[in-house]
Write a structure and sequence with these properties.
Elements: H1 7-29, H2 32-38, H3 48-71, H4 78-100, H5 104-126, H6 130-134, H7 137-156
């Protein structure tokens, strides 16, 4: 567990990450009952109601992870911040490409880049706070799963 040293900063970090999810959901929500409902999906595709709660939890974990890096006494965190914000932007961009542009192929290419950036984020955060890195593991696992799902949807709907 960790001690909350700056509640405002923790709240800001979580809301920042949840905000990325909200931006992505703008492109997602309208496509779920229309375009996404018409797609062929693999047998391992979860029901739609699973995605929202999972992402809310993952964005919260990302925010806590960011907070731990922000409050760390370690200097020279610039590269960790850059890779974190790069992956956060890529995370939002995936929703825009997959649901907004309705392009599973391009979304698959983008999610692979996102996956690599998450790995780099974990690596850079681990040098600052092991807990911050560990909190990103569920996100990494979910994006790994989402990559397989994205690829399968692309293949089933070519």
């Amino acid at each position: 567990m960790f001690k909350i040293k700056n509640f405002s900063l923790l709240l800001f970090s979580i809301l920042l990450c949840e905000g990325a999810g909200i931006i992505g959901s703008v492109f997602t929500i309208s496509s779920i009952p229309t375009w996404y409902a018409t797609l062929n999906k693999p047998f391992f595709s979860p029901p739609n109601y699973v995605f929202g709660p999972v992402w809310i939890a993952l964005y919260a974990l990302m925010g806590i992870s960011l907070y731990l890096v922000l409050i760390s006494k370690i200097d020279r965190k610039d590269s960790a911040y850059k890779i974190f914000f790069t992956q956060l932007i890529l995370n939002t961009l995936w929703s825009i490409i997959f649901f907004g542009m309705r392009d599973p192929m391009l979304a698959f290419i983008e999610i692979i880049i996102l996956w690599i950036c998450i790995l780099y984020t974990i690596k850079s955060f681990k040098l600052i706070s092991k807990l911050a890195a560990y909190l990103l593991y569920p996100y990494f696992i979910w994006v790994t799963f989402a990559s397989f799902l994205n690829f399968s949807i692309w293949m089933l709907n070519r």
